[in-house]
Amino acid sequence: MDDFDPSEFDTAPGEPAETGAATPVVDSDLAPGPVLRRWERWWVLDNAILLGVTVLTALLDLGRTLGDPEFYGFAIVGAVLANVCFTAGPIAEAYLYWIGIRGRAVGLVLMAVGTLASMLLTFGCVIAYLEPTFGPN
């Protein structure tokens, strides 16, 4: 009975007892959760901007675009490609975050550059549809 040590049971509730096993350490500085949550909110803004670009570009030849199902095909392809491009933003910021380049400005710059690239891609898809209207006859 001399081997009994009551201090072995003196741990606070919720505190792990020391068993000699390695306890995983989670470094909250490496967790990309805040970055990804911010980009989820920006996704709505990005899509609203791209919808505006699509509608404004479609107004160049409104009579032809609204009634033609092919136009909607071009617009959907542009939207899918733009959203694939958008996905690169949070991935890039998460990697930059992990290597120590952090801050809201990093995300804003990536968002601005990515949105401009997506706007050009969306504009290009709509213009590709409208090209026979503006090209040589």
Approximate shape: elongated
Span between N and C termini? 102 Å
Helix content: 55-70%
Order of helices and strands: HHHH
Number of extended strands: 0
What are the defining features of this structure?
4 helices; 137 residues; elongated; single chain; mainly alpha
Summarize the model shown:
With 137 residues, the chain is mostly helical. Helix content is 66%, strand content 0%.
Task: Furnish the topology, listing elements before pairings.
Elements: H1 33-58, H2 62-65, H3 69-98, H4 104-134
Write structural notes for this entry:
The protein has about 140 residues and is mostly helical. The chain has one domain (about 30-130). About 65% of the residues lie in helices and about 0% in strands. It contains 4 helices and no strands. Helix 1 (about 35-60) runs parallel beside helix 4 (about 105-135). The mean pLDDT is about 75.
